[in-house]
């Protein structure tokens, strides 16, 4: 049977729902069989000594109907077994009468008729005892336990399970023993005793395998996965659930398959991957309806409602909850009913209808106590506390939080504990109890860091981290308030460290993984699967691109989009698996965020000032850090800063008449507070939120509105200060590549390009990579939802020629036209060059960074379509130990903004591939102006022997001082990321 157990809450964090599989058994007087919680149990074996052939026939027909698993077939089976029972009873065949009663009890249990099920089981029990059938007795005791379990009477259920277990062992029925061990584990899980639950489930699993019960094995794997999910060990949970799913499918157990799909959805939901969660729920729902599993259907409907609530679609969420609630009641699932009532209350609370919310919570609470669900009880107590908190009844709110907290701890709900601690800290802060609040927030942050380490490595860990950023925000707020009260206590240094802990952790981990070469030693089959998925995805994207360029229907586009997203999800899952099984990954130690003293020692020098920004809902902060000091400043909240930054960003992105002075209002907020500390130093900017899209080089000096910061300062950007130190350590002893520069520019984008039908001059003959023929890939990548106009960038040719002329011929490669190809960009020999320069179109996908990339030649000399898109997954697979990668293209510094992680895009891909520093752009750059800027940039590096940061600054200054290119629109887009040394 399907056993729902859920955790849902509102507040600073939304917790999860979960579903587990129970176990029930059908038996005969001579043999017992267990099933995998599906409505299609192992066929009953009829006692060989039965003398009533008509009764035997009815019993067998009932078994066949039972195996069909629909409500109609179950009711027909019930009629058959009722008739068989009367015949066995008349013949005084107590053993087989007990079999029919057991089956009739199971059917009524599945149909939600719990009391009727108990009646039948209680009639079967003395019959089994009368014929001394200890196996049948054990099965009946187990099934009675199941009914009490589903009714929330956990201790009574345990009593029956513990009577069944020694009987199964006495008759050496390992299958029955496994089922009861599984069920005992489920009870302990529902009581919050997670480790005890795992102990029982891990006793059941090898027994399942020993008797080759694949369905039962799947059920126990599913249940173990659920427990690990509750414990916050999401990767381990996914491992178990992904073992269960194919087993359920192999035995055609749709009920179990649906439960596992639902549980996988729960894991993704808890990690913040809402769309992926919906995909799994929407696979589970029709399966549950097909097998008429009303309880399971209610659970999945409630889970879907929770996702829509988290997405802000409150009315849609209510619609799903209101579909779930009557189903909960129909199957007498009091725990599930309480969960849905809690969820409805959460929606009304978020809509501001606090009294209505309390009404629903107060309906849920006694039900949860009645069924002994301490975890869900804690959630509801937490939510009631939030309502009273919002109503200003602080002491009442604190009373509820204090009731919730020990329950959280008792059931080992670390995420829930962190949520309640955060809520308590927020309340205490509002009452001026800052020290008490800080103690609770430090506990909450430590729990959060622990949970983050247990989340699946890769994108899921990043997404999870984005969902808990409000905790870091409150922590920083508290520390800065304490700093204002006690400026000498070092709270500002702690706040700075908290800021470092809150940002770019995924990028730090990626660079550590790159240094460890985590693919080394991995099963080649997994790596081949990865490449296969990438190729499949490329093919789908190519089809989608081709459709958007011609005649198409929206249905066609939507179908391909769905396939594309599915392949991305599969690829992310496989890459997580590659990490987990990598021998190098197992021994990898991730770098920890640096504290203030470490940043001062490992990152800064006497000439560098770090300006680190943190945007908050209430107020924002700026820390100005030198090698021996820290000064902190309070700035307006994020909404106020965005109101000033957004129009400035839009203007400078689009208008070549924009002047430096137009950024004065923003500069007054961001730069004026610290202007007296600037002192012509190099500025290391660690931005946040919308500030990541702002060209700090173009902001005016507050006292000189027409003069950009660029005039007095070198400016470097980074996603965190720790990143600089990490790069330095990792690349400290790396040898410099043997050759100077590879320039890839002016590709062929369109079929009507005249170069497809003309002889290209000898000056632009294909460059050689150690005289290897440039074989072409046969697949093309698409461009996303629409096909943008890819005009030729003719000045990129001039840019490439000017750059190439600065280097000796034997130290360079210049790839133009057809040779500006993906093949060349991914060729291993490109690792021989110190500088890699791309002058082409850049494509940024704001939702799926995997679709971002650079556009290279889309045709070969024969006019055939060529794979010309170098996407982010391709870049991650490159080996480019370059000192500098220049992305002279549009928006290459942008990407999907992930809270706590910054902009996820091309920069991290090239850094992962080995680049020490990357030059990128913040908007759609002008072709001719970019050609001029890049030529000057390389002239400074080569002719004046300047390092990249100084060279870029000098080139931008030359553009600003020229009459033609003075607007920052022409030169301000480019910024350098990485180490300046």
Automatic annotation (TrEMBL):
The domain of life is Bacteria
**Keywords from the UniProt entry:** TPR repeat
Statement: the UniProt record of this protein carries the keyword Repressor:
no
Residues in CHAT domain copies: 664-979
| Position of the signal peptide | none
Do the record's keywords include Amino-acid biosynthesis? no
Q: Where are the TPR repeats?
A: 138-171, 178-211, 218-251, 258-291, 298-331, 338-371, 378-411
Q: What is this protein called?
A: TPR repeat-containing protein
Organism, per UniProt? Limnospira maxima CS-328
């Amino acid at each position: 049977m399907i056993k729902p157990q859920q955790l849902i809450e509102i507040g600073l964090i939304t917790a999860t729902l979960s579903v587990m599989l129970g176990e029930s058994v059908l038996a005969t007087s001579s043999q017992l069989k267990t099933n995998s919680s599906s409505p299609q149990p192992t066929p009953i074996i009829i006692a060989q000594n039965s003398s009533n052939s008509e009764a035997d026939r009815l019993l067998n027909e009932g078994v066949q109907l039972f195996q069909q698993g629909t409500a109609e077939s179950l009711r027909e089976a019930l009629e058959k077994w009722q008739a068989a029972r009367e015949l066995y009873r008349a013949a005084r065949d107590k053993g087989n009468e007990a079999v029919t009663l057991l089956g009739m009890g199971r059917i009524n249990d599945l149909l939600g008729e719990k009391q009727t099920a108990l009646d039948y089981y209680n009639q079967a029990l003395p019959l089994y005892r009368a014929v001394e059938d200890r196996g049948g007795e054990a099965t009946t005791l187990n099934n009675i336990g199941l009914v009490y379990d589903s009714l929330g009477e956990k201790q009574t259920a345990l009593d029956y399970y513990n009577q069944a277990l020694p009987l199964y062992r006495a008759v050496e029925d390992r299958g029955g023993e496994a089922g009861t061990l599984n069920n005992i584990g489920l009870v302990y899980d529902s009581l919050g005793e997670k480790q005890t639950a795992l102990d029982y489930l891990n006793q059941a699993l090898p027994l399942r395998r020993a008797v080759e019960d694949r369905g039962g094995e799947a059920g126990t794997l599913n249940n173990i996965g659920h427990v690990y999910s509750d414990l916050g060990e999401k990767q381990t949970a996914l491992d178990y659930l992904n073992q269960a799913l194919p087993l359920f499918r192999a035995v055609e157990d749709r009920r179990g398959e649906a439960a596992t799909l639902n549980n996988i959805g729960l894991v993704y939901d808890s990690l913040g991957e809402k769309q992926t969660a919906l995909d799994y729920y929407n696979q589970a729902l029709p399966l549950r309806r097909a097998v008429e599993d009303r309880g399971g259907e209610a659970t999945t409907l409630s889970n879907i409602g929770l996702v829509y609530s988290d997405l802000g679609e409150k009315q849609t969420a209510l619609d799903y909850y209101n579909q779930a609630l009557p189903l909960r009641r129909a199957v007498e699932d009091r725990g599930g009913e309480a969960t849905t009532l809690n969820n409805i209350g959460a929606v009304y609370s978020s809509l501001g209808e606090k009294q209505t919310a309390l009404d629903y919570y107060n309906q849920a609470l006694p039900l949860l106590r009645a069924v002994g669900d301490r975890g869900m009880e804690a959630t509801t107590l937490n939510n009631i506390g939030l309502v009273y908190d919002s109503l200003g009844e602080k002491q009442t709110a604190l009373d509820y939080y204090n009731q919730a907290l020990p329950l959280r701890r008792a059931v080992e709900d670390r995420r829930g504990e962190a949520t309640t601690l955060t809520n308590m800290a927020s309340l205490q802060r509002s009452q001026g109890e800052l020290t008490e609040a800080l103690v609770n927030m430090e506990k909450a942050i430590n729990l959060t860091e622990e949970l983050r380490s247990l989340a699946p490595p890769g994108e899921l860990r990043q997404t999870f981290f984005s969902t808990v950023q409000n905790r870091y925000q409150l922590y920083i707020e508290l520390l800065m308030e304490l700093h204002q009260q006690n400026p000498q206590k070092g709270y500002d240094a702690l706040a700075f460290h908290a800021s470092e802990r809150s940002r770019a952790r995924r990028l730090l981990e990626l660079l550590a993984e790159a240094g460890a070469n985590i693919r080394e030693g991995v099963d080649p089959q997994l790596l081949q699967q990865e490449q296969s998925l990438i190729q499949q995805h490329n093919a789908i994207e190519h089809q989608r691109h081709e459709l958007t360029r011609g005649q198409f229907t929206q249905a066609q586009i939507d179908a391909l989009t769905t396939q594309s997203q599915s392949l991305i999800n599969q690829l992310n899952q496989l890459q997580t698996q590659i990490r987990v099984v990598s021998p190098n990954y197992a021994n990898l130690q991730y770098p920890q965020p640096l504290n203030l003293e470490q940043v001062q020692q490992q990152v800064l020098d006497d000439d560098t000032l770090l300006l680190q920004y943190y945007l908050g809902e209430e107020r924002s902060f700026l820390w100005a850090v030198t090698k021996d000091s820290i000064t902190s400043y309070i700035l307006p909240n994020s909404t106020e800063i965005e109101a000033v930054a957004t129009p400035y960003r839009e203007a400078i992105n689009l208008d070549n008449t924009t002047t430096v002075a137009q950024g004065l209002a923003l500069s007054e907020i961001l730069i004026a507070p610290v202007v007296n500390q600037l002192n012509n130093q190099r500025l290391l900017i660690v931005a946040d939120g919308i500030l990541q899209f702002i060209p700090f080089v173009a902001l005016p000096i507050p006292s000189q509105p027409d003069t950009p910061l660029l005039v007095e300062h070198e400016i470097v950007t980074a996603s965190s200060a720790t990143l600089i130190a990490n790069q330095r350590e990792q690349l400290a002893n790396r040898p410099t590549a043997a050759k100077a520069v590879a320039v890839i520019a002016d590709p062929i984008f369109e079929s009507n390009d005249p170069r497809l039908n003309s002889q290209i001059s000898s000056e632009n003959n294909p460059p050689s990579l150690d005289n290897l023929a440039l074989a072409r890939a046969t697949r093309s990548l698409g461009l996303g939802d629409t096909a943008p106009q890819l005009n030729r960038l003719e000045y990129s040719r001039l840019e490439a020629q000017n750059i190439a002329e600065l280097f000796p011929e034997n130290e360079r490669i210049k790839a133009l036209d057809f040779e500006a190809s993906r093949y060349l960009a991914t060729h291993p020999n490109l690792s021989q060059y110190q500088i890699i320069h791309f002058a082409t179109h850049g494509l940024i996908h704001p939702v799926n960074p995997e679709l971002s990339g650079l556009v290279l030649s889309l045709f070969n000399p024969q006019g055939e379509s060529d794979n010309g898109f170098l996407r982010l997954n391709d870049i991650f697979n490159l080996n480019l130990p370059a000192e500098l990668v220049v992305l002279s293209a549009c928006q290459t510094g942008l990407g999907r903004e992930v809270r706590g992680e910054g902009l996820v895009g091309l920069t991290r891909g090239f850094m992962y591939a080995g680049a020490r520093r990357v030059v990128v752009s913040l908007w759609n750059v002008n072709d001719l102006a970019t050609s001029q800027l890049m030529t000057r940039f390389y002239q400074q590096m080569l002719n004046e022997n300047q390092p990249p940061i100084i060279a870029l600054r000098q080139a931008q200054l030359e553009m600003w001082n020229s009459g033609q290119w003075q607007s920052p629109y022409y030169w301000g887009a480019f910024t350098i990321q990485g180490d300046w040394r």
